[in-house]
Give the backbone structure.
Amino acid sequence: MEKLRYERPVIKKLETNMPNKFGLRTEYQPKTHIDGVAVKDLIKEHGSPLFVISEQTIRKTYREAKKAFTTRYPKVQFAWSYKTNYLNAVCHVFHQEGSWAEVVSGFEYEKALRNGVEGSKIIFNGPDKTIEDLKKAVEHDSLIHIDHLDELYSVIELAGNTDKKPKVAIRVNMDTGIYPMWDRFGFNYENGQAWDALNKIMRSEKLELIGLHCHIGTFMLTAQAYATAAYKLADLAIGIKKKYKHDIKYIDMGGGFASRNTLKGSYLPGSDTNPTFDDFAEAITSALINSNFEPDNLPLLILETGRALIDDAGYLLGSVISNKRSAQGKRTTIIDVGVNILFTSFWYEHKITPAQPFTHYAEDTTLYGPLCMNIDVVRESVSLPLMNKGDHFVIHSVGAYNMTQWMQFITLRPKVVMIDKDSNVHVIRENETIERITQMEKVPGHLKEFEL
Amino acid sequence: MKIKKNVAVSESGYIFNPSTGESFSVNPSGIEIFNMVKEQKSYEEISAHFLKKYNTDKDTFEKDYNDFIGMLNHYLLLEKDHAEEN
């Protein structure tokens, strides 16, 4: 006779008072497959933990976002935010869909070039562009978004030494009615810094001012702030037209759209409450169309949204190491996924689903990662179905930032695989090996020998 | 180790402790252990039963059993024996 699936015994005190901090149970179905591929097969083949990216989800999300904007505004261009996830395979999916590249460092700029993106379709943001970076960007006709006056002077000087007229935009920060107001990127709108920079550019006659850019915040929970920003950028563009008879080619609204993840401390799930692409599109395009732009001469609208386009396409698979009981009697579970590879667990209450069938019993649990550090907490409090040692689980919506901000700490970073539309699994980044890590190290000769 | 005389578990896993007014819910494997302990079955008997019926191993069951009994004790559902009191 076949043995029954074992579930550890649990007892739960029934309480009729206010809901506790663990919240309500959210998982009702196991996540056994991703795009038709069994989670247990993925782990068997590629190890645990494992990042999985769904190509179909990227394309579907991108098309949804594009539709939200193109049905409301005639000229729209997305630029893939490399810093959100610059694995080449991911970038290629976005470029195949028509996205330009938006980079914030010389490293990312070089990555975009090597991915085959034309220089003129690379937007170069960020506060740290070296002279060499700027030279390269000028040479390739890239769109240089100037962050500060020192950079502006450098570009003017570079322009004097070349027959090319660098294509530039300025980054504008402003009060959009949200807190905190981001005022670290670019030039301020309200106090006249932005006009000061624009005047310097126009009067230098060495640069071609082609756009205006802003980056008003991250994980924005209100679309209205973008309407304010679009209105202010439109005001600058119209002012330039009036003063210099010069048309701005594009308005770049930057990134910052919230994904469907749930921020820590939120009472309701992000998937129910965060603004959608339609909300952001409605706010931005209405502001531009209702501004004083001539209807037949609207600027191109560029969007650098990253997180909202890739978060849902990323999964992190892992395994249970042990179940423990804390000194206060609380259930704690140790998993093989730590904050070093799941950086976003500092911000989000990540949705976590067991990868095998479970009953309707759940336990209030704290999920600890495998690092020997107290801060390694993946979920402080979650009502989770019962999982045994060795069981697998799926952490959802991890596509943004984790694969760029992850840290190699006490262990090796895992593989990343991508599942294509035909359910084929492709390794898009190999797991690290101790050789790869130690090959960059050098031990001085006098330290080589020792006796213990 | 004994479960308090006036505490019982229903078929659906509902436990009521009349002396404190508290109620609890246990899952099916918890019901089985609860009833076997109530019937004064030894740990060896309970373990043998689980290993025969369920897909688990001795070490896992021992750890989970001890944890469960610890929680019964935590919720004051066990009789204190005299040795403990002393």
